Amino acid sequence: MPTRAKLADGMAGTSDRRSFLASLAACSLVAGVAGRSRAAEPLRLGLIGLGNSGRRLLQVARGQQGVEVVALCDVDKSRLAECAGTLARPCAQFVDYRELLETADLQGVILATPDHWHAPIGLAALHSGHDLYVETPLALTVTEGREIVDAATRLGRVVQVGNSHRGAAPIRTAVELIRSGRLGKIETVRAWCTGGESAAPVPDQTPPADLDWDRWLGPAPEVPYNPQRAHRHWRFYWDYGGGLLAEQGSRLLDLVHWATGLSAPLNVQARATYDLANAYETPTSLDVTYEYPGFHLSWSQNSWRGKPETPDGLVFIGSRGRLYLEHNNYQIQPEGLAIDPIGPGDFELPRPAGHFEEWVDCLRSREQPSADVASGHAAATTAHLGNLAARLQRTLTWSAADERFVNDPAADRWLSRPTRAPYDR
Q1: Do 371 and 380 touch, CB atoms closer than 8 A?
Q2: Phi-psi region of 96 (alpha: psi -120 to 50; beta: other; left: phi over 0)
Q3: pLDDT tens sequence across 25-60
Q4: Residue 219 belongs to what H/E stretch?
Q5: CA triple 154-372-143, angle to 5 deg
Q6: What is the pLDDT of residues 156-172, one digit of tens each?
Q7: Is 172 helix (H, G, I), strand (E, B) or coil?
Q8: CA angle (124, 91, 225) in 5-degree steps
Q9: Rounded to an integer, what distance in angstroms lies between the CA atom of residue 240 and that of residue 226?
Q10: Taking Cα atoms as reference points, which of 185, 165, 135, 153 lies closest to residue 349?
Q11: Residue 14 CB: number of other CB atoms within 10 A?
Q12: In sequence order, which ranges of 213-368 are alpha helices (DSSP H)?
């Protein structure tokens, strides 16, 4: 936990110590009353992006004591009106996120747009003086993720990434067990995920009247409206998302990093299968192998399950046993490895009330949450590397220090993307 500065015991050159202590006590009382008054005021939040993730986060925020959502933004006016109607009080409604960021006295911004908007809006929010909660993955590209990390660090903003597994107490216990050596040396980690979608292509159409399609596209290339691209299907197109590996994979990869204490692979190779009749662009099945110092990590999408009944999860295989992570719970084999409680000398984590609650607490304390911007960037980057290895169809060697591929300028060009005016920041 971060350490807090302590007041010095003495004060050089004080001729009347009793008078000094009396004045100090008076100042402390005034400061304490002011601090309690500020803490009693509700945190005023704005939310940008009202799809499935945005609506879920709106529901979570509504359930928080001391939090008030006072501004909403979405390029779909029908979604905007529907979500505004769920709030107890009227709120400001915007189609242009820049107008929301100009709203007076916002303490934080929740960002739940499609991935291609994360960096432009996230950076604007940080530079406008706002703390940020951003859904996973942190950004669409490695370069954009780095820009968010650097801006948040330079400006001193509190940023939490939506790797919500970190807020679950059983997951924290599992991480403690692994980091405390209960499994012995970690030799292999396997992640799996099932799902994704296939759909037959449909003709381009006129956008719905309530949807600002040009603004939805934003920095992405201009294309005609197609219902297969919009809203929840967007993650299966490279211009807007990174498929299941970027969405669900970045969450699981984040847990691998947390549990092992490592944050970047040395190299990556991948094999992808595509459905040529599918309207979507991302793979229908994908197998990725990452080499880390001391162990290998594999990602299996629609090709292998660690447990037949579990659609997604992780298994850590060590020299003394294995541990399964799934749906905010864990199972260790043999069970005796978890009999002794975590104690002195072991790796130990605090227990926040929840993932979103931790961000709210950090808005007040100015500490960084456990799912901070650096860890979110590391997880998203690892997911992007897997997708790039599949698209380039070759093994890629990664330099984490430089955030570049080793002697591979052709691959480096894929770490960023061109952006479309006037949305190119």
Answers
A1: no
A2: beta
A3: 333 333 333 343 345 689 999 999 999 999 999 999
A4: none
A5: 60
A6: 999 999 999 999 999 99
A7: helix
A8: 60
A9: 14
A10: 165
A11: 11
A12: 213-217, 243-244, 250-260, 355-365
